[in-house]
Amino acid sequence: MENSYDIAVIGGGILGLATARALNERAPRARLVVLEKEAKLATHQTGNNSGVIHSGIYYKPGSYKAKLCVEGKGLMLEFCQKHGIRVDHVGKVIVATEPAELPRLQTLYERGIANGVPVEMIEPAQLREIEPHAKALRAIRSPSTAIVDYKEVCSAMTRELTARGVTIETNARVTSITRTADAIDLETPRAVVRARRIVNCAGLYSDVVARMAGARVNLKIIPPPDADRAR
């Protein structure tokens, strides 16, 4: 395979693919490669989460989390519509089951309003109409919360990237990272990939990749018990 690139993205989950997509849009002439250690893309957290497209109700108004969640929701819905990916607008209810939780519920409601998220404070009778099995003193209804299959999203991103000339390599676990005078060499089972820059999108293994790259990392990510850390 071609093994000399301007930028190598390590990790083929939704973060790695989205990062490669953004880089390609900003620098369409740059030679990009995405390196994924598994045989398929999006097989870790991306392919095993709940698929929620969050509305942005939880985050402090004015924070980057609030801004990016609301903006990202809109961009995700546009992307799914463009690529014919099904989105289920199931909505969500957030409930207060005891008096002590009512002030926190009110805070979430006010955050939703401030963040421009469609929210509605509802009473027990209204809640029962939406979800008969839920019981609460009051609840917030968030109609814009949705779910999507992020594996489908990643498949569409992969098609886009490939069509734009971005190289995507699977079974390409990075086993060592060596800096030379003018490049970075990434050793994989298939070949040594040389890049001018690397972006670490390795998820639960990002601390391992960071240490291989020579970064001073003062934390350790603990994957689930069934994850093979040595891989």
Give your account of this protein's structure.
- It is built from 6 helices and 12 strands.
- The protein has 231 residues and is of the alpha/beta class.
- It has 2 domains: 4-49 and 150-212, 3-Layer(bba) Sandwich (FAD/NAD(P)-binding domain), CATH 3.50.50; 52-148, no CATH class.
- It has a 6-stranded mixed beta sheet. A 3-stranded antiparallel beta sheet has the order 3-8-4.
- Helix 1 (14-26) packs parallel to helix 5.
- The longest helix is centred in the first third of the chain and has 20 residues, at 64-83.
- The mean pLDDT is 94.
Can you lay out the helices and strands and say which pair or pack?
Elements: E1 4-10, H1 14-26, E2 32-35, E3 52-53, H2 64-83, E4 87-88, E5 92-96, H3 102-114, E6 120-122, H4 124-130, E7 138-142, E8 146-148, H5 150-163, E9 167-169, E10 176-179, E11 184-187, E12 192-200, H6 206-212
